[in-house]
Design goal:
alpha+beta, 3 domains, three-stranded antiparallel β-sheet, 17 strands, globular
Length: 426
């Protein structure tokens, strides 16, 4: 039951990527939907608190308080450290989204503690809160994804299902790692335990965030007659910027693995062109302030086959399908043009992992393709430390290059990111 509840959490978190679409370059969209989101960000965790009283669930109340408290401290600390400008430039505390984190704190607790009948409606409402934050230009999509992921991970630190039956938990002793099987009756945790086989997770959720340095971002629209625009020079507010990604893995066996990755990116900034340029059939003048909105949202899904499943070294090969949404908008005075392209492409993968010790491992992964109108190469190096059989933390470096060449848009994009990764296996 606990696994099913966490799967629901991951699926509904991923829906944020579909809800968060490109919005306006400037301005502040305040309307009834945003007001509803403002109310829901508090109503969802307060409803969760009320349900713990209705069920006389003191343990759950303590778990909720710890999860919400950890979420709040993490979000506010990151806001203070990152100082990312909001899309409407109203403040420099955009990352991560506090509204989304608050809403998902309550929803994640309801899902974990009381099941899908409580959790699914709460998650849908929390996703709506995230949508309103992007729509109102208070947050970027990666801010919202970060808030949701932080809330879910914080909840999983403390919350446990309230149910009768059998609970299986990982155990660590001086000599072994295994599973503890407990017979549950109501809220009483009794009794009969025995150590079984080593903990082997079926699923893993991970969240990574860090700083992304834009090395190159050339745009031409249309690809045949437009001017080549160097958007990397638009760096008043957003270079470097934040990067966020959430991934979900399903381990079918020691050899077979499926995964999905959600990676939203949006950059807004201002700058000038030294010469007149043509974009989407419109000429923008030189030496005039121009606002730029660049979006590249990616959903990647694939399969990996473990060629060497035994020992300290793993070698996985496979492939998958990437969906990339690219959106560019330029606004200068009364000039306002936008171009969007949605593209699919298959890709190949090779991932290697080496266990440096029982808890420390080094991972190197490369995904890439050269298919029709889409070319990309994504290389990631990660040093990861196992805190417990379920939790791991790591630091990594990513180099990402992408070339898009379709009739309406040509784009060459290169960026380097340094990130922190937190993973939870179950």
């Amino acid at each position: 039951m606990g696994i099913r509840r966490k799967l629901t959490s991951v699926v509904l978190c991923a829906s944020l990527g579909a809800l968060s679409s490109p919005s306006l370059v400037s301005g502040d969209t305040t309307d009834d939907l945003e007001d509803v989101g403002d109310v829901l960000q508090l109503a969802i965790p307060l409803a969760a608190l009320g349900i713990t009283y209705a069920k006389d669930d003191k343990e759950g109340r303590q778990q909720l308080a710890k999860g919400v408290g950890t979420t709040f401290l993490t979000v506010q600390s990151l806001k203070f450290l990152v100082e990312k400008w909001r899309p409407n430039y109203s403040a420099d505390n955009s990352f991560p989204s506090g509204h989304t984190a608050a809403a998902f704190s309550g929803a994640a607790f309801l899902q974990t503690r009381y099941g899908s009948s409580y959790g699914v409606p709460a998650y849908l409402l929390a996703s709506f809160v995230g949508y309103t934050r992007v729509r109102a230009e208070k947050h970027f999509s990666d801010d919202v994804l970060a808030g949701a992921s932080i809330a879910m991970l914080s909840n999983w630190l403390y919350a446990t299902p309230l149910e009768n039956g059998v609970r299986v938990l990982p155990t660590v002793s001086q000599d072994a790692v295994g599973l503890q099987v407990s017979m549950l009756t109501g809220s009483n945790k009794s009794a009969e335990t025995k150590e079984t086989e080593p903990f082997k997770p079926r699923f893993r959720f991970s969240f990574s965030f860090g700083a992304s340095s834009l090395d190159n971002n050339d745009v031409r629209s249309p690809s045949s007659t437009g001017s080549q625009l160097d958007l990397e020079q638009f760096d008043t507010f957003s270079n470097p910027t934040t990067s966020s990604a959430a991934s979900f893995e399903y381990f079918m066996s020691d050899r077979h693995e499926f995964y999905a990755v959600l990676n939203p990116l949006e950059v807004r900034d201002e700058g000038t062109f030294s010469n007149p340029v043509r974009f989407d059939g419109t000429v923008y003048p030189a030496n005039t302030t121009t606002a730029m909105d660049y979006v590249m949202n990616e959903i990647r899904g694939g399969y990996l086959y473990n060629v060497v499943p035994e020992g300290r070294f793993d070698l996985k090969i496979g492939g998958g399908l990437t969906f990339q949404n690219t959106y560019v908008r330029l606004v200068s005075g009364n000039l306002d043009r936008e171009v969007e392209s949605n593209d699919f492409a298959p890709y190949a993968s090779i991932h290697a992992t080496y266990e440096l010790s029982d808890r420390l491992e080094f991972q190197l992964g490369v995904d890439g393709t050269s298919f029709d109108s889409v070319e990309f190469l994504d290389a990631v190096a990660l040093l990861s430390y196992e805190l417990t059989p379920q939790w791991d933390i790591g630091v990594g470096v990513q180099s990402f290059s992408r070339k898009l060449d379709v009739a309406e848009l040509e784009n060459k994009y290169d960026a380097t990111s340094v990130f922190l990764n937190v993973g939870y296996s179950f």
